[in-house]
Amino acid sequence: MFGAISNFLKIVLIVLFYQLCCTHAQSKYQIAPYDSNWFEASEYCHRMDMRLAIVDSEEKHNAVVKEAKAAKLHSSGFFGVWLGATDLARSGNFIWHNTGARLRYARWGEGEPSGGREHCVVLYYWPKQRFNWTWNDAPCSTELYAICENYEKAACIQEF
Ligand SMILES: *[C@@H]1O[C@H](CO)[C@@H](O)[C@H](O)[C@H]1NC(C)=O
Ligand SMILES: [Ca+2]
Fold this sequence. Notes:
Elements: H1 2-22, E1 29-36, H2 38-47, E2 51-52, H3 58-70, E3 79-86, E4 95-96, E5 101-102, E6 120-126, E7 131-138, E8 144-149, H4 154-158
The protein binds 2-acetamido-2-deoxy-beta-D-glucopyranose (NAG) and calcium ion.
The site of calcium ion has 7 residues, from strand 7.
């Protein structure tokens, strides 16, 4: 009898801890309160226990665009948020830095990626330059806003 109750309590506790540590991982994105270069943007996200957004599907692209629009910082006609991809390690080979995965999905603007000194991936709204919430490779030192995402951390589950 007591054993059954304690097993039940154990399950309740596990579910509760799982909710606490992992569920918020699904409510996703946050835009930094200031602009910075790509590296500072990445560090900012990690300090928030998040990472620069990995956008590997149209669904995620749309979600990130929605979040970026909601920040209401694009009315001047220029707004950019850093995504978590770069080809700094090998030119032309864009990689999601936090997973090492190659870019399969992408939503490049016209004529992008243009290469040269431009190695960090940004989602732009810049209609004068024909960016309508599309991607560009930009110099990594450009000051733009981080868009961070929550992600599930394996440690959450391994603890049990
Ligand atoms: C951007 O794209 C949207 C949807 O495709 C369109 O409705 C809008 O007019 C475009 N904006 C500009 C500035 O081109
Ligand atoms: Ca470019």
